[in-house]
UniProtKB/TrEMBL annotation:
Protein name: SRPBCC family protein
Organism annotation: Natronosporangium hydrolyticum
Domain of life: Bacteria
Amino acid sequence: MRRYDLVDEARIPAPPNVVWESLIAELRGAGRWWVPHNTFRAGPVGPEQIGGETEVTVHPKGVDKGGPKLRFTARTKAVEPGRRLSADYISGAFRGRCEFLLHPIDGTGHTLIGMRFEADPQGMLKLLSKLTDIGAQHSAATQHAFASLAAQLADDTADSRPKQEILQ
């Protein structure tokens, strides 16, 4: 059986509390920065709480582009607001776990975000994993999402600066 153990990281131009708020909003279904590759829908208990569940849908060709949709459910098992969120994949296309870690980058107001993905494919995905590099696709989608988050938060920061600072 194929097992994935991947770590993807990115520098985000915002402090950890802002990155955390964006991460939780995305996992609740905001669809602002992980689209077109992944969409999320929170269960009755949100992902920011232990026991919260999030339905994840992976769109390999992009949202509304056809093709297979890979679905799985993540259940939150550990939360340190502004710093760490860990979840187990309990049903669907993957079994395993993920962890998001946020670290302030000293003196910059920026954050290093990391995602560790440890999972085994299930069902038809197990067969597909023998034909295509799902790990590379996962990392590419995660890096794309982190780049989108960085661009979004950079724009939000620029929009919140006083007009005089922007003009200088």
